[in-house]
Specification:
The protein is α/β, with parallel strands linked by helices and 432 residues long. The chain has 20 helices and 14 strands. Strand 4 and strand 5 form a beta hairpin. The relative contact order is 0.14. The chain binds pyridoxal-5'-phosphate (PLP).
């Protein structure tokens, strides 16, 4: 399998190169040259396969021969070594719980897969890399955990001071060793800008080899398809048209779902559920794509004002909006609606949502009101305990802390505080 650069289609790379480089030249994202298609029989008999077998079948065409089969099987097993249950909420609504991984959010799947792949490529003699990421909350912890102790990889995480939850902050600041956290006096956009400046600084890139672990990296993005197939395996309402609602920020997750759709996953419709950062819902309404400064919300991992992966979503539909609209709609949910959804779902079903899942849930409920013949799944992308500050305020109840979180709360945060100034970041990167 080869990948082409969306900004420069003649530039191609295999999975190894695309993973190591992160981005193509002219900041173009890599996109698979062809999309594998599953047979109807395979889909029909999906429950006959183990989760590992399904995951391997989904991802192996994308990896090609860049990783030997037995190693890829091991990597896949480590990527999904936790429960991914589909829980029934009501007759028409189920929740796919993606928060049972080590850092309690769905990003563990992509981060574990990418770190294992990159670790393998390092062992094969690739030069040492610095993974540089900006996080609005969850990416930092997932990447820190995934890359902890991976040889040949140094990780530098930039996060906005005071804008991530306590659990999120501790997950990315307490590991040490090859993981460094920089607490930036600024917003997530400032962090993102610093990272982009570093990637386009020729002088810096001659000194150190930089790559990204955001969902622009194919090794982070592609394995996210796996859990859509695992949802289908567990789904009982297959006779009705199915809609899946995906809490969306940078649009990597929903883009993986749409990729699975193009591979034959028999889902009828997808909803990109956004918070107040409504660039895509507005675009689908007006036809005008207007990037905006990110607004802070309770669902902070979705506070993105210019989603990087949306260009991939469009590419799946040959850059045409009308065919996209047949398959995907998008909804913007406010913070007030988010908290009232957390409360109403808790009161009605005794089920506790995190703010991201709540956005997905309400967008789904609205869709189902208009399409009563459908039944739906929403993705619960983070454990409510990651956002206990919000959730406890809404429900008035203490959230039970899992042991892993209790242990975390006793750890000491280690972060270097920096101004949102590129020269400071550059100096830091060159120093070590
Ligand atoms: C990152 C994240 C999202 C958004 O996912 P994208 O792939 O960026 O659209 C949603 N929910 C949670 C909890 C996240 O961490």
């Amino acid at each position: 399998m080869l990948y082409y650069n969306l900004n420069k289609p003649l530039e191609k790379a295999d999975f190894r190169t695309a993973t190591i480089q992160g981005l193509g030249s002219e900041k173009g994202l890599f996109f698979p040259e062809r999309i594998p298609l599953f047979s109807k029989e395979w889909i029909q008999h999906i429950s006959d396969y183990s989760n590992e077998e399904i995951a391997f079948s989904v991802i192996s065409p994308y990896v090609g021969n860049t990783i030997p089969e037995h190693l890829l099987k091991k990597i896949v097993a480590e990527t999904i070594a936790f429960d991914i249950p589909l829980v029934t909420l009501s007759e028409n609504i189920s929740v796919l719980e993606l928060f049972h991984g080590p850092t309690l959010a769905f990003k563990d799947v992509g981060a574990l897969f990418m770190s294992r792949c990159l670790g393998y490529f390092m062992k094969q003699g690739a030069q040492p890399v610095t993974v540089l990421v900006a996080t609005s909350g969850d990416t930092g912890g997932a990447v820190a955990n995934g890359f902890f102790h991976v040889e040949g990889v140094r990780v530098v995480i930039l996060y906005p001071s005071g804008k991530v939850s306590r659990v999120q902050e501790l997950q990315l600041t307490t590991l040490g060793e090859n993981i460094t956290a920089l607490e930036v006096d600024g917003s997530f956009d400032d962090c993102q800008t610093l990272v982009k400046q570093a990637f386009s600084d020729k002088e810096l890139n001659q000194e150190i080899f930089l790559t990204s672990a955001n969902s622009i990296n194919v090794a982070r993005w592609l394995p996210q398809q796996i859990y859509y197939f695992l949802a289908w395996k567990q789904w009982k309402n297959k006779t009705k048209p199915t809609v899946i609602s995906v809490p969306s920020g940078n649009f990597g997750n929903i883009c993986a779902g749409l990729l699975a759709y193009h591979s034959g996953l028999p889902v009828t419709h997808f909803i990109a559920a956004c918070n107040a950062n409504a660039v895509v819902p507005e675009f689908l309404k007006t036809g005008v794509y207007k990037p905006a400064k990110a607004k802070s919300t309770f669902s902070n991992a979705m506070d993105v004002g210019d989603p990087s992966n949306f260009v991939r979503v469009l590419e799946l539909f040959d850059q045409e909006v009308e065919p996209l609209k047949q398959v995907m709609s998008s909804e913007s949910i406010s913070d007030t609606e988010t908290t009232s959804t957390i409360r109403s779902i808790y009161d009605k079903y005794g089920y506790l949502l995190d703010p991201h899942g709540a956005v997905g849930c309400l967008a789904l409920q609205r869709y189902l009101e208009k399409h009563p013949d459908y039944s739906g799944i929403f993705l619960e992308t983070a454990h409510p305990v990651k956002f206990y500050e919000v959730v406890e305020k809404v429900t008035g109840k203490k959230v039970a802390l899992p042991d892993s979180v209790k242990a975390l709360l006793n750890k000491k945060k280690i972060a270097d505080k920096i101004e949102a100034d590129y020269q400071v970041l550059k100096h830091f990167l060159l120093k070590k």
